[in-house]
């Protein structure tokens, strides 16, 4: 399972030597109190680490380059308690490689009307000190998150916490490996892309492994491990009779367990954080992995079908962002529509591989024929999704840039039973409305594979795109087609510069 609690963000306070030792001592004390409050906040899932006040170009450079080198440091928070001349920050900011949040706050919440004097004014200069710093970051064209408000307030702490989750997702991509069993589904465009450019831009690598290499691992799984997993299946899911001991399809469940254990061993041994496969390349496998993929996603692996490595990587990042929160993040595909004029909806699914983290009930473990792949009937988990706020997001390669496309949605309970559809079923209403959302998604070149999220926000994904320095397009309750088209045109000009 994913755990980001040991990750760190460094809290770096800016000042200068101008004010003397007493003022600088008070700056350090105040910063320490802020750091303790943020570190103890239930909204912030990582450690917030106090760093000594930086007062010179040399101290700034040493601190920021140290952040680059510290493996557990996923980003920095900067704050100017006093005025900190921003030319001191140029060398350090130029060298900084970690995500940055600029906290525009001040130690005191209220003006101390009866006691405020010039000593107080000299000590508390955040209102203009942060603007000096902000100018330099903008002058250097560095992306960052800006959070404004008093450090002790819940909204500010929640914004910081949300950003630390984004930084953790980005950190998880650095050096990550994704395995591709087989190649891209033949002739499909949007799931393909430039893996060299992706590694350069995002920090993760994607490489292909022969299905035969995986099959060799699968075939060497010991029977004792298979039997143990079978017992886990039976205690975790509602099993159809044919998969129970003595049932006519029991051997298929054995094979499904063997595939799951083999896949997991291959991924663990190779240090992979996600994977893809394709039904067009299953040589040596008895069935297309269904329950195996579903359960591995639930454990935190990124996955997408048909060789779609970009979506697999995005799902992994969003799983990291949402770790420990209610709800889930899962591989998804807009499969069919309910075009009732009064209430059009999207029914999302995939052939087999939807993460049971979205299940509203105890999944049913079933076996059914699959009309593609040419293999034995695969075992899969069948369930319905739940209602609630959600979104779908897709990552596409446009040749000269990557685009992250995001659509706010509202999850809904599946309207009726689907007794003849033996897959996971997730239903949602896209915002602002069905027609506008679908039109904008198509105009934006959106992929048919997405990550469906119940706990990551649009703002977090926009922050993620800022860190990655890629384009983000949002479809939400305020979207109009005219404005969306204009945004696309403006972005084309911007990214062609």
UniProtKB/TrEMBL annotation:
<keyword id="KW-0119">Carbohydrate metabolism</keyword>
<dbReference type="InterPro" id="IPR038583">
    <property type="entry name" value="AraA_N_sf"/>
</dbReference>
<keyword id="KW-0413">Isomerase</keyword>
<dbReference type="InterPro" id="IPR024664">
    <property type="entry name" value="Ara_Isoase_C"/>
</dbReference>
<dbReference type="GO" id="GO:0019569">
    <property type="term" value="P:L-arabinose catabolic process to D-xylulose 5-phosphate"/>
</dbReference>
<comment type="function">
    <text>Catalyzes the conversion of L-arabinose to L-ribulose.</text>
</comment>
<comment type="pathway">
    <text>Carbohydrate degradation; L-arabinose degradation via L-ribulose; D-xylulose 5-phosphate from L-arabinose (bacterial route): step 1/3.</text>
</comment>
<feature type="binding site">
    <location>
        <position position="306"/>
    </location>
    <ligand>
        <name>Mn(2+)</name>
    </ligand>
</feature>
<feature type="binding site">
    <location>
        <position position="333"/>
    </location>
    <ligand>
        <name>Mn(2+)</name>
    </ligand>
</feature>
<dbReference type="GO" id="GO:0008733">
    <property type="term" value="F:L-arabinose isomerase activity"/>
</dbReference>
<dbReference type="GO" id="GO:0030145">
    <property type="term" value="F:manganese ion binding"/>
</dbReference>
<dbReference type="Pfam" id="PF24856">
    <property type="entry name" value="AraA_central"/>
</dbReference>
<keyword id="KW-0054">Arabinose catabolism</keyword>
<dbReference type="Pfam" id="PF11762">
    <property type="entry name" value="Arabinose_Iso_C"/>
</dbReference>
<feature type="binding site">
    <location>
        <position position="350"/>
    </location>
    <ligand>
        <name>Mn(2+)</name>
    </ligand>
</feature>
<dbReference type="InterPro" id="IPR009015">
    <property type="entry name" value="Fucose_isomerase_N/cen_sf"/>
</dbReference>
<dbReference type="Pfam" id="PF02610">
    <property type="entry name" value="AraA_N"/>
</dbReference>
<feature type="domain" description="L-arabinose isomerase C-terminal">
    <location>
        <begin position="328"/>
        <end position="471"/>
    </location>
</feature>
<feature type="domain" description="L-arabinose isomerase central">
    <location>
        <begin position="177"/>
        <end position="324"/>
    </location>
</feature>
<feature type="binding site">
    <location>
        <position position="449"/>
    </location>
    <ligand>
        <name>Mn(2+)</name>
    </ligand>
</feature>
<comment type="similarity">
    <text>Belongs to the arabinose isomerase family.</text>
</comment>
<dbReference type="InterPro" id="IPR055389">
    <property type="entry name" value="AraA_N"/>
</dbReference>
<protein>
    <recommendedName>
        <fullName>L-arabinose isomerase</fullName>
        <ecNumber>5.3.1.4</ecNumber>
    </recommendedName>
</protein>
<dbReference type="InterPro" id="IPR055390">
    <property type="entry name" value="AraA_central"/>
</dbReference>
<feature type="domain" description="L-arabinose isomerase N-terminal">
    <location>
        <begin position="8"/>
        <end position="174"/>
    </location>
</feature>
<keyword id="KW-0479">Metal-binding</keyword>
<keyword id="KW-0464">Manganese</keyword>
<dbReference type="GO" id="GO:0005829">
    <property type="term" value="C:cytosol"/>
</dbReference>
<dbReference type="InterPro" id="IPR004216">
    <property type="entry name" value="Fuc/Ara_isomerase_C"/>
</dbReference>
<dbReference type="InterPro" id="IPR003762">
    <property type="entry name" value="Lara_isomerase"/>
</dbReference>
């Amino acid at each position: 399972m994913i755990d980001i609690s040991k990750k760190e963000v460094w809290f770096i306070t800016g000042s200068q030597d101008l004010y003397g030792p007493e003022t600088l001592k008070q700056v350090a004390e105040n910063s320490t109190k802020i750091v303790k409050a943020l570190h103890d906040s239930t909204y912030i899932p990582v450690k917030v680490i106090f760093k000594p006040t930086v007062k010179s170009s040399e101290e700034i450079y040493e601190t920021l380059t140290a952040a680059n080198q510290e493996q557990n440091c996923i980003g920095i928070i900067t704050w100017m308690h006093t005025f900190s001349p921003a030319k001191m920050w140029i060398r350090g900011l130029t060298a900084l490689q970690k995500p940055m949040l600029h906290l525009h706050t001040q130690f005191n919440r209220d003006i101390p009307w009866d006691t405020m004097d010039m000593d107080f004014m000299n000590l508390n200069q955040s209102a203009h000190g942060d603007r000096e710093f902000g100018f330099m970051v903008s002058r250097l064209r560095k992306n960052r998150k800006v959070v404004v408000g008093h450090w002790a307030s819940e909204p500010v702490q929640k914004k910081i916490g949300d950003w630390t989750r984004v930084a953790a997702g980005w950190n998880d991509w650095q050096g990550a490996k994704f395995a591709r069993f087989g190649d891209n589904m033949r002739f499909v465009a949007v799931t393909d892309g430039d893996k060299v450019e992706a590694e350069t831009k995002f920090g993760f690598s994607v490489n292909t492994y022969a299905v035969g290499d995986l099959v060799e691992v699968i075939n060497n799984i010991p029977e004792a491990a298979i039997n143990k997993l079978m017992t886990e299946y039976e205690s975790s899911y509602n099993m159809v009779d044919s998969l129970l001991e003595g049932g006519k399809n029991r051997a298929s469940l054995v094979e499904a367990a063997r595939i799951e254990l083999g896949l997991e061993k291959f991924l663990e041994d190779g240090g992979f954080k996600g994977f893809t496969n394709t039904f067009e390349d299953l040589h040596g496998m008895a069935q297309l992995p269904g329950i195996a993929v579903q359960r591995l996603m639930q454990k935190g692996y990124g996955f997408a079908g048909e060789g779609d490595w970009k979506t697999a990587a995005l799902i992994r990042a969003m799983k990291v962002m949402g770790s420990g929160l209610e709800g889930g993040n899962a591989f998804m595909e807009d499969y069919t529509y309910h075009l009732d004029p009064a209430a059009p909806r999207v029914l999302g699914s995939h052939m087999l591989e939807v993460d049971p983290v979205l299940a509203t009930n105890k999944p049913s473990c079933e076996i059914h024929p699959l009309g593609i792949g040419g293999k034995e009937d695969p075992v899969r988990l069948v369930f319905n999704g739940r209602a609630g706020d959600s979104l779908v997001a897709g990552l596409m390669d446009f040749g000269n840039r990557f685009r992250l496309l995001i659509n706010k949605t509202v999850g809904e309970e599946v309207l009726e039973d689907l007794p003849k559809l033996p897959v996971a079923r997730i239903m949602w209403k896209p915002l602002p409305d069905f027609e506008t959302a679908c039109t904008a998604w198509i105009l934006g070149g959106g992929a048919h594979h997405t990550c469906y999220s119940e706990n990551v926000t649009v703002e977090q994904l926009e922050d993620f795109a800022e860190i990655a320095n890629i384009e983000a397009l949002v479809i939400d309750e305020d979207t109009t087609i005219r404005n969306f088209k204009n945004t696309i045109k403006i972005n084309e000009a911007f990214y062609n510069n």
